[in-house]
Amino acid sequence: MSVPPRFRSTDSGERDFRSVLGPTGNKLQRKPPGMKLENKKKTTTIESKDEKTKKKPDPPPSPTTTLKQCSSLCSSLLRKNSASMTASYSSDASSSCESSHLSVASSSRCKKAVRRSGSAVGRRKQVDEKEDKVSAGGGGGSNGDCFADGRRRCAWITPKADSSYVAFHDEEWGVPVHDDKKLFELLSLSGALSELSWTDILSRRQLLREVFMDFDPVAVSELNEKKVTAAISLLSEVKLRSILDNARQVRKIIAEYGSFKKYMWNFVSNKPTPSQFRYQRQVPVKTSKAEFISKDLVRRGFRSVSPTVIYSFMQAAGLTNDHLIGCFRYQDCCSVDAETTTKAKKTERE
């Protein structure tokens, strides 16, 4: 290791030794014996506590000892610097390793998410392909949604479904209704869907007609609550009372609009809304139109008329045609819609 730099004086024969970093601080070197300096400078020394107590000072260090101390100090500094550099390198390496582990983990998470989304899309494609094969296939009971009569129905109607439910789908569901009694009946039955399924409701339909006098809103509004609550085995007390309250509100609407039919069909401009859904998953639970109708009915005092109930009512009453395009009833309901609209226009002109 090289010693601290020395600067030559103006006289090449003489050297002026500068202060160097020693173990006890910066001190001025004493001139070596046998050398004369032109400008004699007063050396300043740091007096220690011992010197203040008038003890004899230690002899000044020789140049050789000073050089040795400097070389040892420089070597120790170099060792510390090398140790700190190796520590920083190791910390950088560990941080890079950690970051690499994190990047690998994040990339693995992204890959897993992509795989999951890809698997979900793949399953959906498989279901869609199966439904396409069923809709493209011919008749026969071998296909999932095809019956023995060779007709293709909506995906939620299976060969194992109840006969009353299948008949309701084939004859009533989605057909436009313009009769006040029938509209009030379907509204009441749709309100019971929060407690029962369509199969259970249809199995009790005839008994409900007897209790509520064929769902004549004017007659039901005059019924006694005790007589209605006696039929609690068919529906809950909340649903039975809601049918009575709704009948009274329907009676008010008839007095205001002339008929319940006119009030309901004004929401869809007297024309059914044809949907072109290909798959069951595309059929919504509610729409903005159903929410708007529900709010107006609630404002008028109706009960059990949530947006989901109202949309089920719209599907059953034919205000919207939600038969799948592969179902044989889709075209039938579209033709019925055209006939009803032409008849309505003729009655308006007359």
Automatic annotation (TrEMBL):
Transcription regulation keyword on record: no
Domain of life: Eukaryota
InterPro entries with a match to the protein in the record: Adenine_glyco, DNA_glycosylase
Molecular function terms, GO-annotated: DNA-3-methyladenine glycosylase activity; metal ion binding
SUPFAM superfamilies: DNA-glycosylase
Keyword terms: Metal-binding, Zinc
GO BP annotations listed: base-excision repair
Annotated segments matching region Disordered: 1-70, 113-142
Binding-site list for Zn(2+): C154, H169, H323, C327
Claim: Flavoprotein is one of the keywords in the record: no
Biased composition (Basic and acidic residues): 8-18, 47-58, 125-134
PANTHER family: DNA-3-METHYLADENINE GLYCOSYLASE I, OS04G0501200 PROTEIN
Name of the molecule in the record: DNA-3-methyladenine glycosylase I
Organism, as annotated: Brassica campestris
The organism's taxonomic lineage, starting at the top: Eukaryota, Viridiplantae, Streptophyta, Embryophyta, Tracheophyta
